[in-house]
Design goal:
This protein has 803 residues and is α+β, with helices and mostly antiparallel strands. Helices cover 48% and strands 17% of the residues. It has 24 helices and 29 strands. The strands form five sheets. Strands 1, 5, 6, 7, 8, 9, 10, 11, 12, 13, 15 and 17 form a twelve-stranded mixed sheet that branches. Strands 20, 21, 22, 23, 24, 25, 26 and 27 form an eight-stranded mixed sheet that branches. A hairpin with a 3-residue loop joins strand 11 and strand 12. It is globular and about 100 Å long. The mean pLDDT is 83.
Length: 803
């Protein structure tokens, strides 16, 4: 019986090639998006789920409570030792201290050039207990011993091959930043794709004790909290998260008696860390929910499109159904016959969708990684991926039943006599009202995506066009690996390069994702302010290089050490509403235990992305912390200018690797997630439009067939082609308008919620909705125009001859 069903289904689909093609295209597009989105959700929710003890592993975070709450994933370096000593309910505690932009040098035999590698984010100092908390696969070495001694390092297999090729790496030496020598004592298997802990050069924590002038200077400093110092804890069996968080309140009072009221140390599970955007997660729950809803929209839209086309096709198959019933076919047989046809179309569509996913996913994943650094999809191994196989089976069954049930019931319900005489009417094939409702649902979903795409586009245009308080274009940033060489002689050499007009030495550019926050005290006040200040270390050329403007006072004096401060307007406003910029000039500011006068007040600029409000900022000099330089350049002969800068840098720092960045490109990366959302919403909107057009085509085909005689009568009575076209236009205009009335308020609410995440945002004006309805109407006109015109220009004699 099943074989007969599918054999007949195969022949039927071949007979109606156009119908089959339209259905396969619609379903394939919807299912491709559904599979891609499922792969994204599956991969993103799998991060760090492979650890055997994942339910007991947590990260300790830090919150600063002032008039606002400031979050950081970092903790003080002494914390792990204190946690071990104070709390028996913690089975294991380990710190990871990330180090960014590290130079790794491989010593070579005499006469051979040294191998140098710039490692952006793979180097970290780790406590050996980390291997008892997280699951690492060891190729060579002992997790209990390999990192117990100073100056030892463990590499992943990938790093070992990168540094040493096919040689045995055990016992080989690396040099970090031309000042620290470490010996390889272990090799780890390569890290899985789905882990947030991506460091691959792990140096023993005990090395820091002998590195007090470098990364180890804050080992015993409870006041220094670096966002790169991460604390992992393994709870003992039966210990609750609330128990730990309550204990950490007393812990803070013990070790931070002066600041414990303004701080907190929440703990987050590995899963919570992956999606908590307060702590630098790349993608949050809200984005995943939105993706899931869009995927559902597109699959449902494809199913609706199938139903519309199938019920329109039912008219052509009425005689076939009548014959089958006359020779003994039953309703269940006819129903399952149509379900088998739907199942065959769905199976073909799923196979094509999987093929499309296999073809486009690597390219899309590469593009996403290049533009955002995010691994969105992971890798797809279809035949070994049980969740994906189950999802495809679920799609096959669900889409077949969802798409095929209603048309199957309609076909099976035809009366044989009426079917054989060709007297099947509109109501017997489900009626126009059902198909109209389905098309309205399609266009509601489509207009939601269109309005979403318009709002995201306008917000991104707003980001690009907003004045951030200075001009970041034509600014080149270069690293200074040895701050003691940030001298006037080096500045002079750089300024001699043709095209370089200004040079400033600094810790950070005015707008940066790397920021330091600290407590401070203004003038003669007895206590520190309840809010922190963002610190930027820079020389007096900082203002001129970036075009920052003074509103009161004067610039910093030339000095290698801190002799005074510049603050921004927001700093002054936070001191009190009656205090003006001129009032703070000459008053003392105490910061980092250094009290010095405020020299000037700078006009506000956006030091963070436009997600956030402008922070209070203090700028001051300290040549020991100038880790980068900003150069204002003329872009007329940019390649020659950049080559000249590189030559001077290489002569000054011959043992390091040169790299350069453009400030405006770095600022653009603040919004890389929004850019990614915009591109995907645009693509999904286009796909929804295409599927919706197929559904409209099905409805107009049905209407044209049903109104053939009515149109013939109207033409005989003198109706013009334009009047006939007006009938169709009024019909579809109503559907588009009803869909818009539903979609407009819903999309306004959704996008308003999305915009609330931004401190600087657009308002959703009426032009958004006008543009959306115009786009939708234009698409509808293009879709129904041809079929409507054919119906309007048909010879009435042919349509009325049977009468």
């Amino acid at each position: 019986m099943l074989r007969n069903y599918f054999l007949v289904a195969y022949r039927t689909l071949l007979r109606y090639k156009g119908y089959t093609l339209l259905n396969v295209i619609g379903l394939t597009l919807g299912l491709t998006c559904g599979i891609l989105i499922f792969q994204t959700l599956k991969f993103q929710t799998s991060f760090d789920a492979y650890h055997a003890q994942k339910d007991r592993i947590y990260r300790v975070m830090t919150e600063f409570h002032g008039d606002q709450v400031f979050h950081t994933p970092g903790v003080p370096m002494p914390m792990s030792k204190a946690l071990r000593a104070d709390f028996s309910f913690l089975e294991k505690v380990a710190l990871i201290y990330d180090r960014h932009s590290q130079l790794v040098t491989i010593p070579q035999s005499k006469g051979l050039p040294q191998k140098k590698f710039s490692e952006e984010s793979t180097v970290a100092y780790v406590e050996p207990d980390l291997f008892d908390i997280l699951d690492y696969q060891w190729v060579t070495g002992n997790p209990k011993l390999s990192l117990t001694q100073p100056n030892n390092v463990v590499l992943t297999r990938k790093m070992a091959e990168k540094f040493f090729g096919s040689e045995d790496p055990i016992g080989k030496r690396l040099r970090i930043n031309n000042e620290l020598d470490v010996k390889v004592t272990g090799i780890l298997a390569d890290l899985p794709e789905n882990t947030r802990v991506r460091q691959e050069i792990l140096i023993s924590w005990s090395t820091l004790k002998n590195y007090q002038n470098g990364p180890g200077k804050n080992l015993e400093d409870w006041g220094s909290i670096n966002s790169s110092t991460h604390c992992f804890i393994l709870l003992r069996e039966g210990t609750k998260q609330s128990t730990v968080e309550q204990a950490l309140k007393g812990f803070l009072k013990k070790y931070k008696p002066d600041d414990y009221k303004e701080m907190a140390h929440p703990i987050l599970s590995l899963r919570e860390v992956s999606f908590n955007t307060d702590y630098d997660a790349e993608i949050g729950y809200s984005q995943l929910y939105a993706l899931g809803v869009i995927g559902l929209f597109l699959v449902v839209t494809a199913c609706i499109n199938f139903i519309n086309l199938a019920t329109a096709q039912a008219l052509k198959r009425s005689k076939e159904v009548g014959v089958r019933k006359v020779i003994g076919g039953t309703k269940p047989q006819l129903f399952w016959q149509f379900i088998s046809e739907t199942g065959l179309i769905t199976l073909i569509s799923i196979l094509l969708a999987v093929l499309l996913v296999e073809l486009i996913m690597p390219t899309v994943n590469h593009w996403v990684h290049e533009s955002t650094g995010l691994n969105l999809f992971g890798s797809l191994s279809l035949f070994t991926d049980a969740p994906m196989l189950l999802f495809l089976a679920f799609l096959l069954v669900t889409v077949t039943l969802l798409s095929g049930s209603y048309p199957g019931i309609v076909l099976a319900g035809f009366q044989p006599v009426a079917a054989l005489k060709g007297k099947i009417n509109t109501q017997q094939v489900g009626g126009l009202s059902v198909r109209r409702s389905l098309v309205i649902v399609q266009f509601v979903l489509t207009q939601l995506l269109i309005i979403g795409a318009i709002v995201v586009t306008q917000q991104m245009d707003f980001f690009r066009g907003k004045d951030i308080g200075y001009n970041p274009s034509a600014i080149v940033l270069i690293d200074i690996p040895l701050p003691e060489k940030a001298t006037e002689a080096f500045r002079t050499q750089l300024q001699r390069v043709p095209g370089v007009s200004q040079v400033t030495f600094q810790s950070h550019a005015p707008s940066s994702q790397s920021n330091n926050e600290t407590s401070h005290r203004f003038d003669t006040r007895q206590e520190n302010e309840k809010w922190s200040v963002n610190t930027k270390l820079a020389d007096p050329h900082y203002l001129e290089t970036y075009g920052l403007k003074l509103v009161a006072g004067k610039n910093l004096p030339e000095s290698d050490s801190t002799r005074g401060y510049l603050v921004n307007e927001t700093y002054v406003k936070r001191l009190g509403k009656n205090i003006k910029p001129a009032d703070v000039i000459g008053r003392n500011l105490k910061l980092w235990n250094i009290s010095a006068p405020i020299y000037g007040v700078i006009k506000d600029w956006n030091n963070l992305s436009l997600h956030s409000q402008i922070q209070p900022i203090a700028i001051f000099s300290d040549h020991k912390r100038y880790y980068s330089a900003g150069l204002k350049v003329n872009t007329a002969h940019l390649p020659q200018t950049l080559a000249g800068i590189e030559q001077v840098w290489n002569e000054t720092f011959p043992d390091f690797l040169y790299s350069q960045y453009f400030l405006d490109e770095r600022i653009a990366k603040f919004y890389q997630t929004e850019n990614l959302i915009l591109q995907f919403v645009r693509v999904f909107s286009c796909i929804a439009i295409i599927i919706g057009c197929l559904g409209l085509y099905g409805l107009v085909s049905f209407m044209a067939a049903q109104k053939t005689k009515e149109i013939g009568v109207r033409k005989v009575l003198g109706a013009s082609v334009s009047q006939i076209l007006g009938l169709f236009g009024m019909e579809f205009g109503k559907l588009v308008l009803i869909a818009f009335v539903v979609a407009a308020p819903l999309s306004w609410w959704v996008m308003t919620k999305w915009l609330e995440d931004y401190s600087y945002r657009i308002s959703i004006g009426w032009t958004v909705f006008v543009l959306a309805i115009v786009i939708t109407a234009f698409i509808a006109i293009l879709t129904v125009g041809y079929q409507s015109f054919r119906a309007a220009t048909a010879n009435p004699a042919k349509s009325l001859k049977s009468e």
